[in-house]
Amino acid sequence: MRTLRNTVSANEGLAALLWLLAAAGYLVAEAYAATALPGYRYAADYISTLGDPAVSPWAPLMNAAFAFQGVCFAVATTLFAAQAPRSRNRLWLLMFAVGNGIGNVLVALVHSGQGNPWHVIGAVLAIVGGNGAALAGSVLPGSTAYRVASIGLGTLGLLCLLMVGVGVGPVGLWERGSVYPIFAWQILTAVVLLRRQTGSASSIS
What we know:
Elements: H1 2-35, H2 59-82, H3 88-109, H4 117-136, H5 144-165, H6 171-204
């Protein structure tokens, strides 16, 4: 039993670390790229503009952040889901996580402003996948507060994406309203996992 608990704790700790690193890396890269682009406004401009090499001087940094977030999110969510009992929710969680990973990598590789539909497809996959993961993963840890927060974040993100889709302005504000809940969920889940890891280590000792 001690070996099993140590293994679970290590997987959860790694998942939490990946989620935190990805969120921090993305948000720092976005802030840096935004300050380097004259006239760029969070509320009015698309996030993907920061990854367009024809417009943004720090596009490589932003695209690296997109890809890093996608890979880390998919891997961390897989580690997280591996600790949960087999269920339909776990399958959905894994599918949404993979969708987020593929979507973010597509956004990093296919830039906005080129008229390529794969950029839009990637953005939709990333946003729906991330918020869908929050909804599907809401039942796994078993905490009522965590479930409510996860459902609230996932729902908020999808509603904001709908507002982007119907063209309600300001577009930058609604787009960030669809993306930032994903980061909030992965940070929240990382904290839950780290607290669980600490509790497990205490019980073993």
